[in-house]
Amino acid sequence: MVATVRTARVEDGEAMGRIHVESWRAAYVGVVPQTHLDALDAQERGANWRAAIEANPDPDHGRRLVVEVDGEVVGLALVVADRDGEEGVGEIPLIYVHPTAWGTGAGFALMVECEAEMQRRGFTAAVLWVLEANPRARAFYERQGWFADGGRKIEEIGGVELAEIRYRRRFDD
């Protein structure tokens, strides 16, 4: 299996929407209300991804990445400057891999490129937020050298309040 990471294109929107929805439905069963998961619309998400790429293709305003395996898009990520404004810090607001590609190395390849992109942009550290009740994702981040830094917030998803914790990665180590 060879995973190739590249900048997302408009024509990737449909796959990005499908991956976004199907990864949520697999990862958040029993965490996010099932009615919320069932209501997720892959076509709508795909249209949103296409529109976002068309409206802002400039990677300096948020680089959207996809990972392909055998020519099929199986994952996506977004790299931006820290949304809380911490100087010199990048952020990965989202990184999703289709459940059928979990454990294949596609997520690792995507994370490596996210980190490389942040370093190219001059960030010395990075953050991401993850649901506290998502041990699979947390273990993945920890294997990549990320650590929980004590940041915590509550997000409402599907009418339920869920805790998110902040993970951090330094690039100056």
Task: Outline the structure in words.
Helix content is 34%, strand content 35%. The model has no long low-confidence stretch (mean pLDDT 94). The radius of gyration is 15 Å and the shape is globular. Helix 1 packs across helix 3. The chain contains five helices and seven strands. By secondary structure, the chain is of the alpha+beta class.
How is this structure best summarized?
With 173 residues, this protein is an alpha+beta fold.
**C-alpha termini separation:** 30 Å
Range of strand content: 25-35%
Low-pLDDT stretches:
none
The tally of strands reads: 7
Task: Evaluate the radius of gyration.
Answer: 15 Å
Mean pLDDT: 94
Structural class comes to alpha+beta
Overall geometry = globular
The oligomeric status of these chains comes to single chain
Secondary-structure element string: EHHHEEEHEHEE
Task: Trace the largest sheet across and list its strands.
Answer: 1-2-3-4-5-7-6
Tell me the major beta sheet: 7 strands, mixed
Percent helix: 25-40%
Q: Work out the helix count.
A: 5
